[in-house]
Amino acid sequence: MHKSLGKNNERSGKSEPKKWKAFLISLLIFLLVPLPFALYLGGTEWLFNGEESVPKEFWVSYILGFVVFIGGLLWMQIKEWFHDDSKNSKR
Asked: Residue 44 and which of 5, 18, 67, 77 are 20 to 30 A apart at CA?
């Protein structure tokens, strides 16, 4: 009986994604979300001239977009934490 439990645990462990892979994918998504906004405001002609010609507008708009994105996620999380479920149950 213990052998069958061990086999089930091994199978379920293999089908679950690795935590570090999920973390890397999440991090990549977080870093890519503000990119279109930054490319729009900073322009794209610097892409062909090299890394040293990256305009300040690109970095400022990228960081601003990142801060707004993280701030929006935090705002939604805080609203969820303080959401009163008793109002919904009365409906």
From this structure: 67
Does 89 map to a domain?
A: no
Domain that holds residue 17: 2-84
The answer to whether residue 91 is domain-embedded is no
| Model pTM score | 0.62
Give DSSP secondary structure letters for 37-71: HHHHHH-SGGGGT-GGG--HHHHHHHHHHHHHHHH
Q: Is the pLDDT of residue 7 over 90?
A: no
Q: How many domains is the chain built from?
A: 1
Total residue count of the chain as it appears in this document: 91
Name residues whose C-beta falls within 8 Å of residue 30's C-beta, 6 or more positions apart in sequence: 66, 69, 70
